[in-house]
Write a structure and sequence with these properties.
With 457 residues, the protein is of the alpha+beta class. It folds into 2 domains: 3-286, Beta Polymerase, domain 2; 288-434, no CATH class. 46% of the residues lie in helices and 14% in strands. Strand 8 (253-254) and strand 9 (259-260) form a beta hairpin. It starts with a helix and ends in a 23-residue tail after the last strand.
């Protein structure tokens, strides 16, 4: 167990040098729970978190009030729900995107009201041929402070198995609570359901593969302090039909027993746990892969068109990569096309087109660069040609003692495309490069200095 995790579990923050918290996304939380003398070094981090939340709060409240006036009362989930209801101040709880759920019948009205307030429609399931099975809208606020993911379902089961997800969602509805956020009407999940569905099941059943964050422990601990007992949690899991999943999750994250294990599961245990939870989830890994393949095949004409288009961008990127250059030098080749309105419908087309084309051209020379760099650069070129001011971002993580690099695409701080063989989400990487039209002006403080990483990293 590392020092940060130990201090977090025992709420012994001051046992560590303040610099260790300054480098984490827990700085604002630790500021609020330490002595005045100790937290002095965390004041800039808390002030930044407070300023960020105030900017988000203003735009989010304006949108939700407009929705309320139209009879739309959203269900808040994940980080923002925890921040508003359970943290002393919302700024303590860092979160990236804001997630909420609406009924499908409300989506068009919600989208139009948001657009009328200046929100950009980054993703629209009715407009874009996305493969998301649980999200209907992706919205960016006028000041770009918020990426809002609007769900129509709480769980992301493949369509052939969505009955299991819908049955569970119906079981959640009687326990949902109305919450008055200083005049804004929203809904929240019940105490146990907040722990089980957006946290435990999402970490266990889908892409995260049981990988955790320290805020997972803090969230569960605050739910415990709010009155959730371990027994009540397990009893609710039994009612929802996911007791095994919850019991396994508690082996990795359990505030009642002061347990937090951030190490990825080894392949043997991961396979074992997947087989154990399959009956509760409603499908096996193999069945899930078959369902995804079937969905993709249903889009064959659409995919072929975009893969053919992507071939040009991938070849262009590969030719540039044959010359050893830093990532910033590579990105300097990619010019943003100035348009009156970015064409966000190109986002998904770029994702599938570049992914398919890069597989077809896997053996085409690209210097020493990894596949993720090729894909990210090609996608960057495609999107900037459509007027989308996307950024290429790279990071590193410790993979069993080895440093592993990864590259992906973001827009206004939100991940647009994770197009690499590595299934680990970008949140597990420490960012060391962020491109920018303005000479990488948005590069993070911990990014590599000097020339930056090369395309081979």
């Amino acid at each position: 167990m590392d020092d940060l995790t130990r201090a977090l579990i025992h709420q012994d923050f001051e046992s560590l040098p303040v610099e260790m918290w300054q480098k984490s996304n827990l700085a604002a939380y630790v500021f609020c729970h330490t002595s005045a003398a100790y937290r002095r070094g965390l004041l800039p981090h808390y002030a930044h978190a407070l300023q960020r939340w105030k900017a988000q709060e203003k735009e989010l409240r304006e949108l939700l009030l407009a929705w309320n006036a139209a009879g739309i009362v959203p269900l808040l989930i994940k980080g923002v729900a925890m921040a508003l209801k359970h943290y002393t101040h919302p700024g303590e709880r860092y979160f990236g995107d804001i997630d909420l759920m609406l009924d499908r019948s409300q989506m068009a009205r919600a989208r139009d009201l948001a657009a009328g307030l200046g929100w950009q429609v980054l993703f629209d399931a009715q407009r874009d041929r996305g493969f998301s099975v649980h999200e209907s809208l992706g919205l960016i606020s006028p000041s770009h402070n918020i990426k809002l993911d609007v769900h129509h379902a709480l769980l992301k089961h493949p369509k052939p198995f969505e009955r299991r997800a819908l049955d569970m969602q119906r079981l959640l509805e009687p326990c949902m609570e109305h919450f008055d956020w200083e005049g804004v009407q929203v809904r929240m999940l019940g105490l146990a359901d907040t722990a089980i569905v957006p946290l435990m099941l999402h970490r266990a059943w889908y892409r995260d593969r049981w990988n955790l964050k320290r805020f997972d422990y803090l969230d569960l601990n605050l739910l415990r302090e709010a009155g959730l007992t371990r027994e009540a949690l397990l009893e609710r899991a039994k009612v929802l039909g996911c007791q095994t999943t919850v019991e396994l999750f508690l082996q990795r994250c359990d505030p009642w027993q002061k347990v937090l294990d951030l190490k990825p599961l080894d392949a043997t245990k991961l396979d074992l746990w997947r087989r154990q939870i399959s009956p509760e989830r409603g499908y096996s890994e193999h069945q899930g892969q078959q369902a995804r393949t079937g969905l993709i095949l249903g889009y064959t004409p659409y995919l072929v068109r975009n893969v053919l288009r992507g071939t040009g961008w991938v070849l262009k990127a590969a030719l540039v990569l044959q010359k050893q250059q830093t990532l910033q030098e590579l990105c300097n080749h990619v010019v943003l096309r100035r348009t009156s309105q970015p064409d966000f419908s190109q986002i998904h087309k770029a994702r599938v087109g570049v992914l398919g084309a890069s597989k077809l051209l896997a053996y085409f020379p690209r210097g020493n660069s990894g596949m993720c760099v090729l894909r990210a650069l090609a996608a960057l070129w495609w999107l900037r040609s459509a007027g989308v001011d996307a950024e290429l971002v790279s990071g590193v993580r410790n993979d069993g003692g080895k440093i592993k690099g990864h590259a992906w695409i973001e827009y206004q701080g939100s991940v647009l495309a994770i197009i690499a063989a590595d299934l680990m989400a970008p949140l597990y990487y420490k960012i060391n490069f962020r491109s920018s039209i303005q000479q990488n002006s948005r590069q993070s403080p911990d990014a590599a200095s000097g020339q930056g990483p090369s395309a081979a990293d």
